[in-house]
Amino acid sequence: MGLTIPTEEMDLCKSLSRAFWEALALTNDMYSWEKERDDAAKAGQMQVMNAIWILMREYSVTEAEAKELCKNKIKQSVAIGVEAVQKTKIDTSLSLELRKYTEAIMYSVSGNLVWSIYCPRYHPDRMFGEVELSKMAEVVATPIAIKSRVAVS
User: Fold this and answer.
1) Of 14, 74, 123, 130, whose CB has the highest number of CB atoms within 10 Å?
2) What CATH number does residue 80 fall under?
3) Is the pTM of this model over 0.85?
């Protein structure tokens, strides 16, 4: 995005975006669970480094219950993050870069969710079509300077 967060705002930036990073990580764990569980089983591993596995062990719950706990934590994290964005957007004492970044990370949560729902990595029965592959090729072929200008405007 071509943003530079002022050094004096970095701790605040991390604090404001933490809830969204939690939601991103937990969403990934929700959608990667079956793949990671199956890969661990094939490798003869007893542990799966995934929030679902951790919740199952920590709370002695079923896989379905752990998924529900994870969904609830994602919802809580997103709600906390959205509230932070709403406050940050109107706080003109903060740099414009910090305000833009905080809002952008919020939108990353929905982008990550869509990716997780449709990506072939977690859904081997799904393949990207011509449209998706051509869009990915466009992004890869576009110089960073141009992408930055487009993303910020």
Assistant:
1) 74
2) 1.10.600.10
3) no
- Take residue 40 and report the two structure tokens written for it: 């661990």
Contact 67, 30 (CB under 8 A): yes
The amino acid present at 93, given as its one-letter code, is S
Which of 66-75, 76-85, 137-146 shows the lowest mean pLDDT across its residues? 137-146
pLDDT at 151 over 60: no
Please give the DSSP secondary-structure letter assigned to residue 43: T
Helix axis angle, 51-59 to 10-42, nearest 10°: 80
Q: Total structural domains in the chain?
A: 1
Decide if 133 is inside a domain. Answer: no
Angle at 116 between CA 141 and CA 13, to 5 degrees: 75
Q: What is the dihedral of CA 14, 19, 25, 26, to 10 degrees?
A: 160
Q: Which of 106, 99, 103 lies closest to 78, judged by CA?
A: 106
142 in any annotated domain: no
In a domain, 145, yes or no: no
Within-domain flag for 1: no
Domain that holds residue 17: 7-126
The single residue listed with the structure tokens 């997103």 is 78
Gap between the Cα atoms of 137 and 151, Å rounded: 17
Instruction: Round the average pLDDT of the chain to a whole number and report it.
Output: 87
